[in-house]
Amino acid sequence: MINLIKGMGKAYLQSRKAKKADKIFQSKRTDKYGFNQKISKETQDLNKKINIIKKTGAGTVGAIGAAGVYGQAKKAFKDKK
Questions:
Q1: How far apart are the C-alpha atoms of 36 and 29, rounded to whole Å?
Q2: Residue extents of the structural domains in the chain
Q3: Cα separations (Å) of 29 from 3, 6, 38, 49, 70?
Q4: 3-class SS at 4?
Q5: 78: which DSSP letter?
Q6: Do residues 37 and 30 touch, judged by C-beta distance below 8 A?
Q7: Distance linking the first and last C-alpha atoms of the chain
Q8: Each residue of 36-75: pLDDT tens digit?
Q9: How many CB atoms lie under 10 A from the CB of residue 34?
Q10: pLDDT of residue 80 exceeding 70
Q11: Which phi and psi (to 5°) does residue 37 adopt?
Q12: Which residue would you say has higher pLDDT here, 22 or 7?
């Protein structure tokens, strides 16, 4: 039983070392999936504009849907003369 616990401790320490080494490797990457991306100023501006357009589009779709629901509810609850 003691040997099993010792083995589990070794495995745990090795996995922590591997995780730490991978974290260091990932922090030094400079390709497109790494943390330290080297992007030109133009690309950063385009990414910012694309994100703004995406958010605006989502808001527009929500507003159109809400207006449709409001119109249907208004029509349904309207007092008939």
A1: 6
A2: 40-81
A3: 39, 35, 10, 26, 51
A4: helix
A5: P
A6: yes
A7: 86
A8: 567 788 888 888 999 898 888 888 888 888 888 888 888 8
A9: 13
A10: no
A11: -75, 140
A12: 22
Residue indicated by tokens 């958010």: 55
The distance from CA 63 to its chain's CA centroid, rounded to whole angstroms, is 24
Phi, psi of 78 (to 5 degrees): -70, 135
Please answer whether residues 30 and 38 qualify as being in contact, where contact means their C-beta atoms are separated by less than 8 angstroms. yes
Q: What is the 3-state secondary structure (H, E, C) of 21-77?
A: HHHHHHHHCCCCCCCCCCCCHHHHHHHHHHHHHHHHHHHHHHHHHHHHHHHHHHHHH
The pair of three-digit structure tokens given for residue 77, joined into one six-digit string: 């609850």
- The predicted model scores a pTM of 0.39
CA distances from 61 to 21, 35, 49, 52, 54 (A): 45, 33, 18, 14, 11
